[in-house]
Design a protein that fits this description.
The complex is a heterodimer. Chain A is an alpha/beta fold. Chain A is built from 10 helices and 6 strands. Chain A is 32% helix and 18% strand. By secondary structure, chain B is mostly helical. The chains are: A alpha/beta, B mainly alpha. The A-B interface holds A 28-29, 45-50, 52-56, 58, 71, 76, 78, 80-81, 83-84, 87, 161, 163-166, 168, 230-240, 243-246 and B 115-116, 118-119, 121-123, 125-127, 129, 161-163, 166, 197, 199, 201, 227-232, 234-236, 238-239, 242-243, 247, 288-291, 293-294, 297.
């Protein structure tokens, strides 16, 4: 509690952080863990180990007079871990479904996650569709036409591995495969928030969480989660409101990201 | 025969080892008394570097005979730690993985392309990213790629599963890639690790269950606390079991875990898992969910950081018997069966629900139809009623009109009659007049007729007279003519 008080300062009446359970889903290696790492620690790790099972992190931020504490489950992306996902999204109030803008098939996977969430998750879940790795595509390339300038900024772009899976072709140079308009149109028709981000340079990352915080019915959560709150998978799991470790970033994060929340 | 190449390597390594031995013996000589004291103090516990080169040398020369002679000694020796320089060879002996034919298969597989290649490539730079040997474009990473890729082709059901490369890494740090491949194949089959990576991850689930049961039995407070915090073993231990602790733990500890697993079987993995929680017992009880989950993943090995021997010792102090594990497995199977039965029941319920829903939909459809018909009928009824009302109104109006008319007619009849009477009287009167006039006219007529008769008489008389005169004229003419 004391950390929240320090950070939120004057707003003494609203010290109790609103806990928002959030889950990250998406194909393997689209940058889920990197997004969280950027949001929580404002860091980027070049070759982040694949998440095995799931990882849990928290981050507090402020929205108007409230302190929000995101409790984030970062899931493993490989299809084989799919069956574990419901345990993590079951009680979530928000989901960030991530795809890689340089990999068309990752958007398809994202769509199937959205469908699953809409069918099986909390009916009021706020879903944000997030196209990551925009640092890999220059503005020019952003306009679908990737015929030019392929080699120019490869030295920084090979940082985030693009790659991947079974089906798609060699595409190391990095052309954008998912046009912004296409993903945004899909998001709109499916009622999702939409963002494009770069976990590597931080672009757009804070907004994802701020906008989610704005859209979530915080009052409702505040009143319904008092007392009994469930940890992922556990009906009686409790999370320490006093929070140690990760919670401390509140102040610094605000400065760095300029995040209003 | 098949061991030729193995022996070569072995001898080569032993030779190198001999040099060390020489140095070591010198060192030993200087610390003989210390050593004796240490061994005397705690023979089995000693985690020191008291390498028994004679034993390891003998073991490598004739593994089977040495093991047969004193199997217990082997585990004791292994618990003390395999000399790191010999580790790769000892591991292969323990796993009986040396297989030149399989090595040939490996070489063949490397020529093929795996459908998992892209995914594997992507994960290469993400496997031990901070380890010198596995840096990008290094031999280590290439070997890692080769072994994992070859395995994905060798065992297509498992294919590639994230976590596998972390198991292969420690192997490659101790042996060449073709041997690591053979080791991997053995570990997957003989050590039942396949089920950690198959699409259903069935063995992994079983291990997690056994782990929780062991926890409940040996460290009930920790078990209860984790449960109360909503922390399931899958949240932190699946990465232990899928990478044999290599994902986050220091490799020196991981190697020791491999030593034990290879000699005792994969189940000993559970000993380590429980030991880790046990040594952190009090700390765990003081932590809540989010700090705890972080701690479970990254902090547990702290107490063993510089004391792998203690780790092994603690693991061995965790009582894990095959019998108990089998009981847990049975319990797990029963639970799974129950779950499956429940799932099946649920599914059949869902199915009948689907059918009922369809039925309901159909009925709703016909209800809707009926409703529509009802509405139509009601509408028609209303229309009819309205029409009838209108007709009633019209009828009323008409009736009214009729009665009005009747009244009018009734009243008019008299008027007409009276009117007619007058008219008739007039007519009669006129008629009388006409009769009278007629009589007058008849009188006049008869008068005229009598006049006419008179006239006619006169005319006839005159005619006669005329005739007489004519005759007299003609007589006269004749008389004149004759004259």
């Amino acid at each position: 509690m004391s950390q929240a008080s320090d950070a939120a300062g004057h707003a003494a009446s609203n010290m109790k952080p609103v806990q928002v359970k959030l889950v990250l889903l998406g194909e393997a290696a689209v940058g889920k863990s990197s997004l969280v790492l950027r949001f929580v620690n404002d860091e980027f790790q070049e070759n982040k180990e694949p998440t095995i099972g799931a990882a849990f992190l928290t981050q507090k931020c402020r929205l108007e007079d409230k302190v929000i504490k995101f409790e984030i489950w970062d899931t493993a992306g490989q299809e084989r871990f799919h069956s574990l996902a419901p345990m993590y999204y079951r009680n979530a109030q928000a989901a960030v479904v991530v795809y890689d803008v340089t990999k068309a098939s990752s958007l398809e996977k994202a769509k199937s996650w959205v469908k699953e969430l809409q069918r099986q998750a909390n009916p009021n879940i706020v879903i944000a569709l997030t196209g990551n790795k925009v640092d890999l595509v220059s503005e020019r390339r952003g306009q679908r036409n990737s015929s030019d300038g392929e080699g120019e900024d490869d030295e920084e772009s090979d940082a985030q591995e693009l790659d991947e899976d079974e089906e798609d072709d060699e595409d190391y140079g990095v052309s954008r495969q998912v046009p912004t308009e296409e993903a945004s149109a899909y998001a709109q028709e499916s009622g999702l928030l939409f963002f494009e981000t770069s976990a590597k340079n931080g672009k757009g990352v804070a907004e994802v969480f701020t906008e989610i915080a704005k859209k979530i019915p915080l009052e409702h959560i505040l009143s319904s989660t008092r007392g009994a709150r469930a940890g992922a998978g556990g009906s009686n799991g409790r999370v320490d409101l006093q929070a140690g470790g990760n919670g401390q970033r509140l102040g610094g994060q605000q400065d760095k990201s300029g995040c209003a929340c | 025969m098949t061991n030729d190449s193995n022996m070569d390597l072995l001898l080569a390594r032993l030779e190198a080892q001999n040099e060390l031995l020489v140095k070591d013996s010198k060192r030993r000589a200087t610390t003989e008394s210390e050593m004796d004291r240490a061994i005397g103090h705690a023979k089995e516990e000693s985690p020191g570097e008291d390498v028994d080169w004679d034993y390891w040398g003998a073991l490598m020369h004739d593994y089977n005979a040495v093991v047969k002679r004193n199997p217990k000694q082997l585990t004791t020796m292994i618990q003390k730690g395999v000399p790191s320089a010999l580790r790769g060879l000892i591991w292969q002996l323990l796993a009986k993985s040396k297989d030149t034919q399989l090595e040939a298969t490996y070489a063949e597989l490397l020529k093929s392309t795996s459908s998992h290649e892209k995914q594997i490539t992507r994960d290469m730079s993400r496997t031990f990213p901070n380890h010198e040997y596995f840096q990008a474009d290094g031999v280590g990473q290439e070997a890692l790629f080769n072994v994992v890729k070859a395995y994905s082709l060798y065992d297509t059901e498992v294919g590639y599963c994230q976590g596998l490369s972390f198991v292969v890494g420690p192997l490659l740090l101790n042996m060449p890639d073709e041997e690591a491949f053979c080791m991997l194949v053995r570990m997957m089959s003989n050590y039942e690790m396949r089920g950690h990576y198959t699409p259903d991850m069935s063995t992994l689930q079983l291990r997690l269950y056994q782990f929780e049961q062991l926890m409940e039995e040996t460290i009930p407070l920790v078990y209860k606390h984790l449960r109360n915090q909503g922390i399931r073993s899958t949240m932190y231990a699946s990465q232990w079991f899928m990478t044999l602790f290599a994902y986050k733990f220091p490799l020196e500890l991981v190697f020791r875990v491999y030593d034990i697993i290879l000699v005792e079987g994969i189940e000993s993995m559970l000993r380590f898992a429980v030991a880790l929680l046990k040594i952190n017992h009090d700390k765990i009880l003081g932590l809540d969910f989010e700090v705890l989950i972080e701690f479970l993943k990254n902090g547990l090995f702290e107490p063993y950081m510089n004391d792998a021997g203690l780790f092994i010792q603690d693991a061995y102090n965790v009582k894990v018997t095959p019998k108990r594990l089998a009981q847990y497995a049975q319990k797990y199977q029963a639970m799974i069966q129950k779950q499956q039965a429940e799932l099946a029941a649920e599914e059949s319920l869902r199915e009948s629900n689907r059918q009922l829903s369809a039925h309901v939909r159909r009925i709703e459809g016909s209800l809707h139809q009926l409703n529509k018909e009802h509405v139509d009928l009601a509408k028609e009824l209303i229309t009819r009623k309205v029409e009838m009302a209108e007709l009633q109104d019209q009828n009323d109006v008409l009736t009214q009109k009729v009665s009005d008319l009747t009244r009018i007619v009734d009243s008019q009849a008299k008027e007409v009659e009276e009117q007619y009477k007058g008219e008739i009287e007039d007519v009669l009167r006129k008629n009388m007049e006409y009769l009278r006039k007629n009589e007058q006219l008849e009188d006049q007529l008869s008068y005229m007729e009598s006049l006419l008769v008179e006239t006619k008489m006169k005319y006839a008389e005159s005619e006669i007279e005329r005739d007489n005169l004519s005759r007299k004229l003609s007589d006269m003419r004749k008389a004149l003519g004759m004259a």
